[in-house]
Task: structure prediction
Amino acid sequence: MSKSPITSPLSDADKAAVGAVLQATLVDLIDLSLIAKQAHWNVVGQNFRSAHLQLDELVTTARTYVDQVAERAAALGVSPNGKAKTVAESSGVPEFPDNWLKVDDVVQAIVATLAALIQRLRARVDETDKTDLVTQDLLIEITKQLEEAHWMWQAQQA
Amino acid sequence: MSKSPITSPLSDADKAAVGAVLQATLVDLIDLSLIAKQAHWNVVGQNFRSAHLQLDELVTTARTYVDQVAERAAALGVSPNGKAKTVAESSGVPEFPDNWLKVDDVVQAIVATLAALIQRLRARVDETDKTDLVTQDLLIEITKQLEEAHWMWQAQQA
Amino acid sequence: MSKSPITSPLSDADKAAVGAVLQATLVDLIDLSLIAKQAHWNVVGQNFRSAHLQLDELVTTARTYVDQVAERAAALGVSPNGKAKTVAESSGVPEFPDNWLKVDDVVQAIVATLAALIQRLRARVDETDKTDLVTQDLLIEITKQLEEAHWMWQAQQA
Amino acid sequence: MSKSPITSPLSDADKAAVGAVLQATLVDLIDLSLIAKQAHWNVVGQNFRSAHLQLDELVTTARTYVDQVAERAAALGVSPNGKAKTVAESSGVPEFPDNWLKVDDVVQAIVATLAALIQRLRARVDETDKTDLVTQDLLIEITKQLEEAHWMWQAQQA
Amino acid sequence: MSKSPITSPLSDADKAAVGAVLQATLVDLIDLSLIAKQAHWNVVGQNFRSAHLQLDELVTTARTYVDQVAERAAALGVSPNGKAKTVAESSGVPEFPDNWLKVDDVVQAIVATLAALIQRLRARVDETDKTDLVTQDLLIEITKQLEEAHWMWQAQQA
Amino acid sequence: MSKSPITSPLSDADKAAVGAVLQATLVDLIDLSLIAKQAHWNVVGQNFRSAHLQLDELVTTARTYVDQVAERAAALGVSPNGKAKTVAESSGVPEFPDNWLKVDDVVQAIVATLAALIQRLRARVDETDKTDLVTQDLLIEITKQLEEAHWMWQAQQA
Amino acid sequence: MSKSPITSPLSDADKAAVGAVLQATLVDLIDLSLIAKQAHWNVVGQNFRSAHLQLDELVTTARTYVDQVAERAAALGVSPNGKAKTVAESSGVPEFPDNWLKVDDVVQAIVATLAALIQRLRARVDETDKTDLVTQDLLIEITKQLEEAHWMWQAQQA
Amino acid sequence: MSKSPITSPLSDADKAAVGAVLQATLVDLIDLSLIAKQAHWNVVGQNFRSAHLQLDELVTTARTYVDQVAERAAALGVSPNGKAKTVAESSGVPEFPDNWLKVDDVVQAIVATLAALIQRLRARVDETDKTDLVTQDLLIEITKQLEEAHWMWQAQQA
Amino acid sequence: MSKSPITSPLSDADKAAVGAVLQATLVDLIDLSLIAKQAHWNVVGQNFRSAHLQLDELVTTARTYVDQVAERAAALGVSPNGKAKTVAESSGVPEFPDNWLKVDDVVQAIVATLAALIQRLRARVDETDKTDLVTQDLLIEITKQLEEAHWMWQAQQA
Amino acid sequence: MSKSPITSPLSDADKAAVGAVLQATLVDLIDLSLIAKQAHWNVVGQNFRSAHLQLDELVTTARTYVDQVAERAAALGVSPNGKAKTVAESSGVPEFPDNWLKVDDVVQAIVATLAALIQRLRARVDETDKTDLVTQDLLIEITKQLEEAHWMWQAQQA
Amino acid sequence: MSKSPITSPLSDADKAAVGAVLQATLVDLIDLSLIAKQAHWNVVGQNFRSAHLQLDELVTTARTYVDQVAERAAALGVSPNGKAKTVAESSGVPEFPDNWLKVDDVVQAIVATLAALIQRLRARVDETDKTDLVTQDLLIEITKQLEEAHWMWQAQQA
Amino acid sequence: MSKSPITSPLSDADKAAVGAVLQATLVDLIDLSLIAKQAHWNVVGQNFRSAHLQLDELVTTARTYVDQVAERAAALGVSPNGKAKTVAESSGVPEFPDNWLKVDDVVQAIVATLAALIQRLRARVDETDKTDLVTQDLLIEITKQLEEAHWMWQAQQA
Result:
């Protein structure tokens, strides 16, 4: 069914613009949730337990916003796409290493991942200022959470 | 780090065999969790709410076993791989349609997905009978849950 | 007591403008809560139970924001008015049919009701941009929730 | 749909009599819930917080029985009507003042409101003694709760 | 032990009359709980999940009153009998079909079952008016719950 | 303050009659709660623990209805009196022995206490049939609970 | 509907064999739940309370597995039958005495009942070893729980 | 049974002294619990609700220590006596007025009651310093709680 | 360590501006939490209990935002400073009186404190409009909560 | 590491004395927890269930204080030793019989065990009066709990 | 209001002495709560997360006793003073460094802070032995908690 | 009582074999719980808190299976023996060092302890394949949990 069965409160142009922003954010966040789980299982080293637990909190954060972003798209009449293939092809998150990883390497990779995501989100906050304040509000909240997580992961590198 | 920092209670041969089984199951279950979420967001039609809720229960089931399967692999000294690319390339789950979907089409797709997964799981239960009873026990439990879900989704087609 | 015993952080003009917006929203939301309960009791037909439950969730959403909107008005020194007569006379929600109703008719009426409310809310979000950002933030949140509900009710018509 | 899709365990005459009693009670209780909320928002003065909280408990009581009364009507095959216009036109609850109100005035108004409601309910308990003991039981319970509330509000006037 | 070790607050005649009423109600309600479970497992068709869940709520209601009725009998010095054979031989509930059942057939069977039970209960409410008001009160409560359930199942046939 | 600050929904004659019934019930139930605690502390013998716990459940039951009975009196404009001296002078509960007590003696004393209380309550249920159905309803509920407790204590004597 | 709307992951022969095992277990467990309730209500004597409570735990255990066994059957495409008549005719549980029962007699009857059930279950664990490991796993778990209960009831006879 | 079935860890002299202290404290606290409930039901006036709630907290405090004091006596081989007659005859708590009471009068009476109790408790803390440190510890804790309650009731008189 | 170990998503100028706003807000809110506790302990007079409880809710509100503001600063690479000396020297909250305080004086002081805080917060909402929307969102939320509290404290002065 | 990495707030002499007291108490309590579990599993006879449950409460009590005692030692710079060999060699608890045990024999053994433990604890309360009031306070609390348990076990022998 | 509206159970001399002890303890504990929060926000380095969480537990401990100490003072008729200026001027806690801090430096500072607090508290335990046993009991409990925390922080330096 | 009062569902030979397996497992697991607590109290060093918490989770795991293993033995008619002396003499767990221990040494000791236990458990899983599938199932579950714990402790050595 390619014609949307859900009407949109936005004009066609705004709907297209906001839809693209939400779809890109959805893919980024699904990828973040998969990467954080991957790290959760493969981390090893002296601070194992602490990192293992903290990574699961990041998974929870990512999954929470995955759902809110997708349902916001649906509410605007835009079909969200979060399938594995879509994520593998269009995610903006940096490549994450395979296999077992030392705690320090995990910290470094997660800090880089979050930095990339935050930069992309801040651009989207600007983009939605003229098109949909409701979507902007959601993106601001995600940015806030990821910046807080970014601090907590960076704090371990000091 | 390609050499495993975790020792295995199994022989090398058994570890390789069981590791392959767990990795394949991990990929299948991650894919199931992504597909069920995809359906959760894109389903439309008269029974929308009921299907929308039931799909989220399937997501929860899939995620629970994703974690147990990956951690069982780690406990055996096998690094689990659950990244988006790996899932996109090696999942045994049938292709799921893009875009908005009618309830009946969702039911049909989920029934087919579960049937494929159960068949693959039953083969793996046999494979692990001689290699690792602990892993077999976990696979039996997953099979049981998916067969119960299969019944409940099928019951709607009657 | 017609002179307000509560001082306002806003100028007199802003207070009057924001007060009118909040009073209008209050009446709309009380009416929504009464209509959703009315439908909750009078719905009949094959999907009865699902609609019956979903309508009660809508009641809960409406009541939550009824309270927040009224208390926001009070916090600004504006006396809120949510009495039956006021609602009957000034609500902007479309007329809802009497008597028992088929599920499809309920869905159609609720979709229309929400569409009308969202349109009115989006206008108020714009109005408050220059007068009170705190109130605007609350209206954005209500809009988001009603647009999500709108999607879920529309999805059943597909 | 004006012909009731729900059969009644009562004779036609009893159903009509009990239905009228329930409809009148429903309207009274919805009005009570709206008035108690109105007072909850508009009360001011030295005992503000205590009255503010106690009024919300009254709202909760009223809403609980609103639902039970309406669903009892439905169970007897009588379509309940709780829309704003119906309440504004047929409620037996005394007029409640607009605008901010001193605590003492609120106490006085609530005591009077409850006294009126109790009197009407006791008459209905008698009316249902020959027609439907199940409905009578529900009305007795509501009477008990409102008489207890009446004592607690009166106690503040001593 | 055929002589009752529990004394009764009732006269012998009243005890015999009330005891018969409670024993008959006990059997009816156990049968209802078994039938609702039977339907819970065997229902199939488009509204499967909703019916499946609603049937389990009916099981819970039935089981709650099974216990209260039996313990009321015991409190009056009457030994309750809820064994399978007793239920099979003396239940007043209509025969329920074997095998898989479509949702519509289930709804029809449950509506008929509840109608039969309510009719029998209303007669017993009358019978106990002169013998034991405590038992009557319990029967009124059960009647209320079953009539509410009856409405909800009937509502799906509209 | 001897003139009641609480108005009564009953006529003066009914208020006096119902007030006397409630005051007598209040005293009986407070005495029951003190006796059950006394037994809770002084019971000894082979079944100590089971009796010790069961007695505390009886305390909880008694205290629950002490409060409801007293507040019902207050709601009718009758000042309840539950002071130690009042209880010592006017309770209708049989004398309870001092000092340590064997389990069997406790069971016997509690069975006798409950039998006496139930007999008095049943008379009061009859008395209130013409004066206040709300109070009657409460007395029926108390009777039911005490008759159930009576069975459970008697069952230990068999 | 006699043809199963649910496909089975098993061959026809295995499905028939496993289906028979599950149906027999279902009937046994429903009967156990009814017998344990019967005893819960009719037990009398010095240890009444302890036995009364322990019997209700047995009811809970039985009901838990009743549901799992029936749903396992459904998941395999076998319609479960748990109606009163079926239980009365095909249960393998020994006859349970009518009327009030002394604690010792209850203990003896429950010990015998559990012994019979365990023997039947152990045979079924063997039967399912070649047909369905998932079902076997469930039967092993039930056996474990009933053997633990058996110990606890036997321990009281020492 | 007048000879204690419970041995005491104390010498006979210490046991007698500590037993007397505990018995006196038990009676005082039961009386406090009855008086606080009496006030809870009979208080009227402008601050009714606040006093009504605060009195129930005092009941809870009193009941908690009633149990601990009685069980401490039992643990020392001293049979505690908390019957209505004992309380009426030996309590050291000042007489509490009958009938409805204004809030101020209640506050005054409770402040006086607590002052008397605290004075008696402080003397008992001294008495137990040489006889039983465990009992002393319990009395210190009760003193602390009552002195805190004393402050909170006094604070309302300022 | 004076060089920040946490990188900032903001430019240096924006970081300095937003950092100053957050630090000032942090100090104000810690001071509010200390003042509310001070009042919680020192309030006396007729409405003591109500004020005592309401002040603790204000402490909870203040502490919640203290933490969020400080962690937002850290997330931006700005070290927050909430030590006693810093609060004593830089808080913008008006001087709060020492010693015991009558309820009316507490209400007056809290109303003044909140008015001062709200005025300062509204200015900061404006300041952050061009520098960091994420921080602005947090400040809007705090303003909303404090304005609601302000209404509730003012309402008692009417 | 034999030199303590934890400094002590006590002098060396006091630390040695208090450390010995805590170590001895630790061993006694671990032994109590193992013995109570041993009895929990091996008890048989008519009161089985009651004793079985009561023994588990004793396990919980013992384990709670095991942890508090060991952590108190650590806080004083004394390394606690709770290994099986240490317990087997230095516990002051009387020998507990092997194999299945009748309820009466269990009661007798537990009463004797608790009597021995209480005697030892009371001596330690005296010893710590001059060395560490904090430790004394903990020992007083343990004594109180064990004396209460002692009463409850003795009460069954009466 | 400088004259205390709360009477004291202590003599004037004892009240002054105990009041000074409580006021000093109050200030120390408020300062501890602010310092622990300061560290919670500013800590960085390899064990960041673990320290971040452990610091928040210390905040909770400190806040719990802040309230109990202040309310004990009030109960004795002494007005507690916990304002920022008072804390800044009279706290006995060592100066805590500004700005970001490495984990090791935080551990060292917290260990020193707790050592200083424990030393001061132990002196106060001695001081209150002759003046108020109730206050002494509270100080002993605080000492116990801080010594346990001290061990846990020191354990990280080994 | 050396003759078992509990009958066994197994033959004498199987009962002896399975009994020996369960007794050995019981002793191993009790020892594990004591060792993990010992480490919980004596661990020191940089990662103290994380190790301290993780050790307590291991205690919980061990205690859970201690109970299940002992109760399985009892259910088979085998008296379990978990006394300190038995554990000290027959445990297969390696010697654990006395006194304070650095985190790394704790990790190493726990990894070795778990490795030894897992090896012994896997042998027992094989032994029970022909004797008791129910026991085997329990041992498989324990093995799974300990292998997962083994991974998590090993991961810290990488």
